[in-house]
Amino acid sequence: MRNSARAVLVIAAVNIVFLVSCKKKKEEEESISLSIDSITTNTFIKEIIEEISSNYADDISREKLEIGAINGILGVLDEHSMYISQDEFTAFTRSTRGAFLGIGIEMKQSREGIEVMAVIDDSPASIAGLKENDLIVKIDGRDISEMPIKDLLSKLSSDLALKVKLSIIRNKSEKFDIVVKKSVIQLRSVKTDFIEDIAIIRITHFNEGTVFDISKAIKQIIRNKAMGVILDLRNNPGGITEQAVRVCDLFLSANKKIVDFRSKNKSESRSIFADNVDLLNGLPMVVLIDSNTASGAELVAASLGDNKRAVLIGEKTYGKGSLQTIIPIPGRGAIKLTTAYFVSPNGKRIDQVGVVPDIEILKDQDMQQYTQRGQKIDQIVQRAVDLLHGLSVLSDDREKDDLREKDLSKLSG
Known about the structure:
Number of strands: 21
CATH class of the domain at 190-323 and 340-396: Alpha Beta
Low-confidence stretches: 1-27, 29-36
Order of helices and strands: HHEHEEEHEEHEEEEEHEHEEEHEEEEEEH
Mean pLDDT: 81
């Protein structure tokens, strides 16, 4: 029996060694296969670059070809994943910190020129009359379709020339020139106003100072004893996602779900819950959204809407519900890579879908303006003010009913 038992143990040990050896061999073969594939791919890309360098009709730098190859790889992923040059990366880092020299636009480069994505309030571009969706085709008389991004950014943001002449195409047909004077753009992302007893917090984008500025606005709202709050996220393209999440936390009570991040990467997949008290203690709230409300702004709208913390008014949002991570490449800029998608507290995907308002008011219905104590108020804001006054009265009536019930219970006792 002992010998047979030993034989079984030896056979088992041999089998284990054999299985481990097979697994190790398989892993080595897969590793070798991946290495061969990698070498083949690198050789293939290198051969194409060499062919272009030798035979293309015009002179073209190797760096430009390499960047083109990188953008080609990232371009097959989605429209938000891209390569960022060292100059763009420096400008991006500066813009998220709250101040930079420039004209005050958010832009996207296209084959025709520069598409204006957004114009910062009270900036030189805004004062000069530049508008969202304008196309800049020339800077100081020079065609910019072939201008390197480094030169383009220098023209718009360096301190070498304090004025810049822009040639604009608007609505694909209207052509004109404007001169814009550069200045230091203070990227205050939060602006607070009051219409009677209703506070309006406008968030233009999310940067490193957004939560701090909103915290100050909340203190002002409490001091003024406002009856309701309008959070205006129209034309907000997003920004720093972490700031958007923290904004939600300011208005939600503890343990309310803010958002789910979903990714194939387990470290990026997580659920985020509010860990603070609602600083406005349930004060009636409306969130304004439109077709240009995107990314982090959509996250905030979906979170406050799904948690029944606010009523959403306006248009369906843009539908960019994804998280981009900036991965620096030392000395060569960075890549912006989509690493996760936003899912609202009710389990709704935002990317490619958008956030649907509770009350729809389209832009073409939003042209009428009212003047109240010298303030111009568009129709959607007036609708929000009226709704908040109604909710405030309803809340007061409920509080009175609760007090009556308590008094009646005391009398019956």
